[in-house]
Write a structure and sequence with these properties.
With 339 residues, this protein is of the alpha/beta class. The protein is 34% helix and 27% strand. It has a 5-stranded mixed sheet with strand order 3-2-1-4-8, with helices on both faces. Strands 10-16-15-12-13 form a 5-stranded mixed sheet. Strands 5, 6, 7 and 9 form a 4-stranded mixed sheet that branches. A hairpin with a 5-residue loop joins strand 15 and strand 16. Helix 1 (15-31) runs parallel beside helix 2 (47-54).
Length: 339
């Protein structure tokens, strides 16, 4: 009997995280009574990692001889997947109870191209990762207004709904949508592959749905740090996407702006990454001084960056902005330097 959903997990040098991802999906299929299969794709992580992945006994294994990136990994997984419903996932994701069912329910609507869950960054499930990116030319230019972006982010986290884009850590998609929109473009070596695919879906009148009742943990930025080619591959993808979306002049303008020193931000230095509780306020956290996009948490109680999140951050400044939950208005900005 064919499965109802195929979960395609794409791995690169993350066998430990992939094991946790596979285990969480198997538990979800059993607990939620979903007929599912796991398609495990590895992008040239090496023989030792392949042995670890083989021990997981996925329903289908695709061990690629070269690193085709997330785009190529997903496409290779699609060739082996048997189900009409698909869950595309990074290896560094743990699915929490109910997430699979909630995503599958959402993509039953014919006009929905893809659905994404609420991602937590920490084991304590208090720090929420961005619901979407700073899309559009002015968003990439870094001149977007914080308050409107914060209001939209909080609304998606709390209520869900249509989003301008979805982050690609986890996407649920019907196979017929891929038949209509096409597969991921493998020229995107790292990042932007899902953004470009979502652009194509939107152009065809389809919708992107953010589903906060579907919850996962995303061990953000850990696996990328193990690949010495990450920055080069990201730059190739960024350049390709910008030129395709904004033309050569638009891409050049964005590159010129990125080369300038970042605009100074009035921020109070912190000796430790901790902010006291404040009634009616939320906290935005980002390594980008514009704080767009941001990870966020409630300030109903004192907040300190969790140790598991600190371990994934590179050295450099981390900005923490207190803002009013009701309207996104910034109240105070801090900066902490990770050494």
């Amino acid at each position: 009997m064919n499965p109802y959903v195929s979960a395609i997990i794409v791995n690169h040098r993350s066998a430990g995280e992939a094991a946790a991802c596979v285990a969480s999906l198997r538990e979800a299929f059993s607990r939620e009574n979903v007929a599912g299969e796991i398609v495990l794709v590895d992008c040239a992580s090496g023989p030792e990692e392949v042995r670890e992945l083989s021990a997981l006994r996925a329903d289908a294994e695709v061990f690629l001889p070269d690193n085709r990136g997330y785009s190529g990994g997903v496409n290779a997984g699609l060739d082996r997947a048997r189900a009409p419903r698909l869950i595309l996932s990074n290896a560094d994701v743990v699915f929490l109870p109910g997430a699979v069912t909630a995503l599958l329910v959402e993509i039953e609507a014919p006009k929905v191209a893809a659905a994404a869950p609420l991602c937590f960054w920490d084991a304590g499930e208090k720090l929420r990762l961005p619901a979407d990116s700073a899309t559009g030319f002015f968003g990439e230019l870094g001149v977007g207004r914080f308050a409107p972006f914060a209001r939209r982010t909080l609304a998606l986290w709390e209520r869900g709904g249509d989003a301008p884009h979805l982050t690609g850590a986890v996407l649920a998609v019907r196979r017929d949508v891929f038949d209509r929109v096409g597969r991921f473009d493998e020229r995107f070596l790292f990042e932007y592959e899902e953004t470009e695919w979502e652009d194509r879906a939107l152009e065809r009148g389809l919708r992107l749905r953010f589903v906060p009742r579907a919850r996962v943990r995303h061990l953000f930025a850990r696996s990328a740090g193990r690949n010495p080619e990450t920055e080069r591959r990201r730059e190739v993808s960024r350049r390709l996407y910008r030129e395709r979306r904004y033309g050569r002049i638009g891409r050049a303008l964005l590159e010129h702006a990125a080369a300038r020193p970042p605009r100074a931000v009035a921020a109070t230095p912190l000796s430790e990454p901790r902010v006291e509780a404040r009634q009616g306020a939320s906290l935005a956290i980002s390594t980008n001084p514009s704080l767009i996009p941001f990870a966020g948490a409630s300030l109903d109680e004192d907040f300190r960056l969790p140790e598991d999140v600190l371990a994934s951050l590179r050295s450099g400044p981390v900005y923490l902005r207190v803002f009013r939950t009701a309207d996104g208005r910034p109240l105070e900005t801090f900066v902490w330097e990770k050494r």
